[in-house]
Specification:
With about 400 residues, the protein is α/β, with parallel strands linked by helices. Helix 4 links the parallel strand 3 and strand 4. It starts with 16 loop residues before the first strand and ends with a helix.
């Protein structure tokens, strides 16, 4: 693994009170219950390490995108679930900052836990307001960022407050950076990258990066139809906006001189509409007739992509191969998930929909690293600096700060 270069929570002093930025932006069911607690579980090693050292914890996270103080996006269910996981009371603060919150934080015993309310209840969170950062800094004697999924955002809880307190990386954030940096800079060969999703524009940076760094680049998902249209194929009613097609055309122009072999589907699965009741039809080719939508890669493409994954020394997968949430169009994504799970090389999977697909197919435990960060992982792999990581203390400064 590459050197991390930033101060780790392992370097933090014992005792005291830590303001810990976690990523508890979990999916909620209609009744407000937590539908998937994976992100909460991912933070447990850092939480447990600090508690073992007698440190009181003030936890802060965002949840969704509330407009004002939306009670449906309160951190209350998160606090309850965390209480169950750590077998200890997790008190819910009356807000994010303020005198009452400061009093609740000051009253915490060693190893005590306080969950702040949704950080996005504060309008200064996303604008990285210095006043909000200063108010947050009053809640702890040092700061820990374990929210890799939000580390690409320069917000008050991820970047602003890190300049006001001794700032350390949590165990999850450290592992994420190490895993993804190793994949980016020194992967086992051959490196096979499978990318899906909807828009070329969402992944143009990582597509361009891996055109030069990977050995095979497999494209699926709705965005493959932008590439196919750029090649002159008919795509019917598939998602392929003109600006997306132009971006795909630019990448296709770079492909002949690039290191990676850029591979597109040779057959596709189509439906008349994006609907659970839609019937699937597999084409012997990629030209989608009018009135139909491309909704999955086809069986031959699935086999070819799975073979490429199976011979790789390292694999990175981000983005489903089709509309996997609809059973009729899940076959391509399942085939890739199964190939990644069975691959002999090192396997790294991006968060979000890819992780949800692995979980749905019962394969999440069979990959080497399942990243908790969608956008953050892509930006790091592109080579971009993540504000939430850059703001942490350098490793060489940790001893003096402690």
């Amino acid at each position: 693994m590459p050197a991390f270069g930033k101060a780790s929570v392992r370097d933090a002093p014992p005792g005291g009170r830590a303001l810990v930025r976690v990523d508890f932006n979990v999916p909620l069911s209609e009744g407000g219950a937590i539908a998937d607690d994976a992100r909460i579980r991912a933070a447990l090693p850092t939480i447990e390490l600090l508690r073992e050292r007698g440190t009181a914890l003030v936890l802060v996270s965002h949840l969704g995108r509330p407009t004002g103080r939306d009670p449906e996006l309160s951190m209350a269910p998160v606090a309850r679930r965390l209480s169950e996981l750590v077998a200890a009371e997790v008190a819910l603060a009356p807000g994010v900052v303020g005198e009452a919150v400061e009093a609740a934080a000051a009253a915490l015993p060693a190893g005590g836990l306080l969950m702040l309310e949704n950080s996005r209840y504060e309008p200064g969170e996303t604008s990285n307001d210095p006043g909000l950062a200063a108010a947050l800094a009053r809640l702890g004697s040092f700061y820990v960022n374990d929210a890799f999924g939000a580390a690409h955002r320069a917000h008050a809880t991820t970047e602003g407050v890190a300049h006001l307190l001794p700032a350390y990386a949590g165990l999850l954030l450290e592992r994420e950076v190490r895993e993804l940096t190793a994949l980016r800079d020194d992967p086992e060969r051959p490196l096979c990258v499978a990318l899906g999703g909807v828009k070329v524009s969402d992944k143009i940076g990582v597509l361009g990066r891996f055109l030069e760094a990977a050995d095979e680049l497999l494209v699926g998902g709705a965005m493959c139809f932008s590439f196919l249209r750029a090649q002159g194929h008919s795509v019917g009613d598939s998602l392929a906006a003109p600006e997306e097609v132009e971006r795909a055309r630019e990448l296709l122009g770079r492909a002949p001189a690039a290191r990676a072999e850029l591979r597109l589907p040779v057959d596709v699965g189509i439906g008349e509409r994006l609907d659970p009741a839609a019937e699937r039809r597999d084409l012997d080719g990629v030209d989608v007739p009018a009135g139909w939508m491309g909704l999955d890669i086809g069986p031959r493409t699935s086999r070819l992509y799975a073979e490429a994954i199976g011979r790789a020394g390292a694999v990175f997968w981000n983005g489903p191969m089709g509309a996997f949430e609809l059973p009729a169009f899940a076959a391509g994504t399942r085939a890739i998930a199964e190939a990644v799970a069975a691959a002999p090389g090192r396997t790294v999977v991006g968060g979000g929909d890819s992780g949800a697909a692995l979980a749905a197919f019962g394969l999440a435990e069979r990959v080497d690293w399942l990243s908790t960060g969608g956008g953050a992982s892509l930006e790091l792999l592109e080579g971009r600096e993540l504000p939430g990581v850059a703001a942490l203390m350098d490793a060489r400064a940790a001893g003096r700060a402690a």
